[in-house]
Amino acid sequence: MSKVRHLIEPTDLKQQEIEEILELAEKIMEKPEDYAEACKGKLLATLFFEPSTRTRFSFEAAMLRLGGRIIGFSEPNSSAVAKGESVKDTIRTIACYSDIAVIRHPKEGVPRLASKYSDIPVINAGDGGHQHPTQTLTDLLTMKSLKKGLTKHTIGFCGDLKFGRTVHSLVKSLAGFKELSFIFISPPELKIPDYIKEELEEGSYIEISSLDTAMEKLDILYMTRIQRERFLDEGEYMRLKDSYILTNEKLQAAKKDMIIMHPLPRVNEIADEVDNDPRAVYFKQAKYGMYVRMALIIKLLEVEGK
Ligand code: NCD
């Protein structure tokens, strides 16, 4: 048997593997019935130590649509974690019962640690303010499908670039694609960390604080929520929470074929009125998330469609 594969950071997948997963996701979208039994007899475990809607439901829907089954918890207090059991022992136990595990945890590094003690594939579904590789696959599939490929775009990331793990993972991954320009739009307090910027070619990005200044240049606008749960000081959150609010009026300056993405959940950063703009693709993006997770599960479990 080949060595068990985990997905903790986007770089755990080779560039070619990422492209294969995206292509497989597109095939699944076209003909889902060919994959309806790919995971028959397999069990996916979801361990969510932090709240989730899209990530957990899309993983569960993905496994069910592949003909597999699911077990897990979305409330750690209902498991022996509440009695003080370590993540290490929890994953060893879960690995006895299931074939693949998905973990979300508020502490950075916990999914990596869990993977070291697991003989089944472990997927990081978000660890603190660090990484969120399956949202990255979701975002890449959205860009690839709706912007016809993953090169020659100017991409604006707007909001909480300091704590937003989806931004960290996505930028790290986009560094592997060619001819992209990045505009990082955030208040000075919420700038993108240096260790992420270091992945990018010099001259391929700028950092600014005004969304209005960037708007007309963008092919893709990636909005993010200010990550309240990561702030040590609630006062600081209150001061920054409404730094950016995207409205129809602001969008008048944008290209007609720009797309507006958001990993969701949104709080206040995109006005509801924007949902009716054809450029708003964030709910489509959530749907792509299910298909790309189907492709990922197939890849990690080394199973096949028809
Ligand atoms: C994101 C997350 O959990 O990091 N949501 C998601 O997984 N779709 C973004 C966020 O919480 O703001």
* Main beta sheet: 5 strands, parallel
How many individual domains? Answer: 2
Shape, principal axes of CA atoms = globular
Average pLDDT level: 96
Distinct ligand kinds: N-carbamoyl-L-aspartate
CATH architecture of the largest domain: 3-Layer(aba) Sandwich
Return the CATH class of the largest domain: Alpha Beta
Tell me the total number of β-strands. 9
User: What is the CATH third-level topology name of the largest domain?
Assistant: Rossmann fold
Helix- and strand-based class? Answer: alpha/beta
Name the poorly predicted regions.
none
The termini sit apart by: 22 Å
Helix count? 11
Question: What helical percentage do the residues reach?
Answer: 25-40%
Q: What's the order of the H and E elements?
A: HEHEHEHEHEHEHEHEHHEH
* Rg, nearest Å: 19 Å
Concise overview:
Helices cover 36% and strands 14% of the residues. By secondary structure, it is of the alpha/beta class. The structure holds N-carbamoyl-L-aspartate.
What does this structure look like?
- There is one protein chain.
- The chain has helices at residues 15-30, 54-65, 87-97, 110-116, 133-146, 165-174, 194-197, 211-215, 234-240, 248-251, 282-301, and strands at residues 43-48, 69-73, 100-105, 122-127, 154-158, 181-185, 205-208, 220-223, 259-261.
- By secondary structure, it is of the alpha/beta class.
- It has 2 domains: 10-131 and 289-301, Aspartate/ornithine carbamoyltransferase (Rossmann fold, 3-Layer(aba) Sandwich); 133-286, Aspartate/ornithine carbamoyltransferase (Rossmann fold, 3-Layer(aba) Sandwich).
- α2 (54-65) links the parallel β1 (43-48) and β2 (69-73).
- α1 packs across α11.
- The radius of gyration is 19 Å and the shape is globular.
- The two termini are 22 Å apart.
- The model has no long low-confidence stretch (mean pLDDT 96).
